[in-house]
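Assemble and predict.
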Amino acid sequence: MMANMVTALNNALDQIMAENKDVVILGEDVGKDGGVFRVTDGLFDKYGRDRVLDTPLAESSIAGVSIGMAASGLRPIAEMQFAGFMLLAFSQIVNHAARFRARTRGGYTLPMVIRTPVSGGVRTLEHHSDSPEALYSHIGGLVVVEPSNPYDAKGLMIAASHSDDPVIFLEPTKLYRLFKQEVPEDMYEVQLSKANVMKEGDELTIVTWGTMVNVVNNVVAKKKNVSAEVIDLRTINPLDEETILKSVEKTGRVMIVHEASMSFGPGAEIAARIAEKEIFHLSAPVVRVAAPSLPYPFPGYEQYYVPNELRVSKAIDKIMSE
Amino acid sequence: MKDVYDGTVRYMQILDENGNMDESLRPKEITDVKLVELYKAMSFARALDAKALSLQRQGRAVTYAPILGEEATQIGTAAAMRPNDVFVPNFRQHGVYLYRKASLESIMLYWRGYEESLKDIKSINAFPVAVPVSTQMPHAAGAAYAQKYKKTGNAVIAYVGDGGTSEGDFYESINFAGVLKLPLVTIIENNQWAISVPREWQSAAQTLAQKAIAAGIPGIQVDGNDVVAVYAATRDSVIGAKDGPSVVECITYRMSMHTTADDPEKYRPDSLVEAWKPKDPLLRVRTYLARKGLWDDKKESAMSEEHLSIIDEAVARAEEFKPDPRSMFENVYSTMPQVLKDEEEEAVAEGFWQGEVSK
């Protein structure tokens, strides 16, 4: 079927619900409204209020309740309405979800998914556009996933639902309806913690994910004189270091492009690993393209904040000239 | 066994939906002349609301949260504040900002998506808009602590929606204020919908005002579409704030969508909205004033014309605003860090904010 990311995720959730009656969806407006982006559309009518639960408006309890459910034989898939609001649940996620298994030495597992829309570019109000992948990846114990296309979205969601570890599933708002793609009708998994080499090349490695994948691909398509290898991480944590290092060994040049702000962002972690393990293979310093080291601005300013094709293009020119 | 606590919550209405005034409960300062002023303020808020909605539909505003139907709750509470009292909103109190003389242009600028909209609100003792639900409530408790500590005699008036009362931050704040007897007045603007989730799915409590009881503080419920009752209850709470906090639950109705990004047809039958139309907060005041010979169609149309011209001028000024991307960098810290300065200079030097991709 041809599907955009919303349809692909909706289809995945439907199949996951049908497959296992222990799966419960919960969150704000996930029921009749089908979620503010309609990702859970129709599931309330199909599976009923016991399995598609409109919760009272309280993010901390959505996360905490999910932990209690997951520790007691259910497999909750929670929706946080926006990444900014999800921070009200940060304590539950960090203090409990991330370490429930470790604290009980595997006595408990937490098969749960927390989905939330992330990143900007669609002129939403403040707190609706954050890119929090570094926050959740920094903790340890959380699998952090971010698809960049409908095919991966469906396959990663199904894999996340089968995982026995808590998965933070980040859905770029900008990509929800940006384009359609052929998506298989049947259930399939896209492996967690496995990056996707989208395009092979031998002069430059570009590591990216989420909203920046299209931006990078657009620039690379225009720069016909540069043989760039584009890697879509798909899972931020645990990192698929092997795929990145293998590519860097081949190309000797690497750029990391993310929408999250620069300082202490995920690019720093990737750059550090490359510096530790591949520095003698590098023929130019690692380059990061990211939003400025600032909180996400109001929508009137986002065009100046989110990295654009021009920035990626200039960064490629720079790294190729060294 | 013995009773250890017995609580009740009282409901107040003064001006009913047919325009009948209960004179025994009417505050003496709400004269007929004052009522005309409140009617004009509510009408202005409604006119602004209609304009903002239409601008958003034309792509001239980013997103907008309508206040249609909630004018009495906003203007009634705002009128009960004293100039030095501190106002802590969530994201839907444009009516309160207006009554406290925030510039119309700044309100427009917020919904056009610029931080400059919040630059001057401190001068009217208002806190900034708070979008994450109920997160403003602890700020209000902290502000109330500061008033008490500094012996200002001012109260803090904080707003939260029905959905917001489900958040921990709501209870934590009224509880904190109760323990320390802080001058905090919490207005629950109960418009009965948290996007698609109805009031009865938020809490099994019969009233939201009774949540005050669990914090050991007084709570009252009022007809939130009755500007006189809203004023009276808020005024009592504001005056009483010197002795401790209280909660005023205003029962109103969200006649429009949550924001312009929302489609209520998905979850709410029109019949529910229709049932609230006779309870309109403006209609009953107009009926009362007309009966007294203080309002008529001529006055109504003259007022509408005046409001529209004021709003149009403010919109024009707001639309002249030109953002400077450097302001993003230069207002984050008191002193600009060198690493940030480097990022800003690179953006300027490399022309990140304009231009085409080189081949």
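The longest helix of chain A spans residues 5-19.
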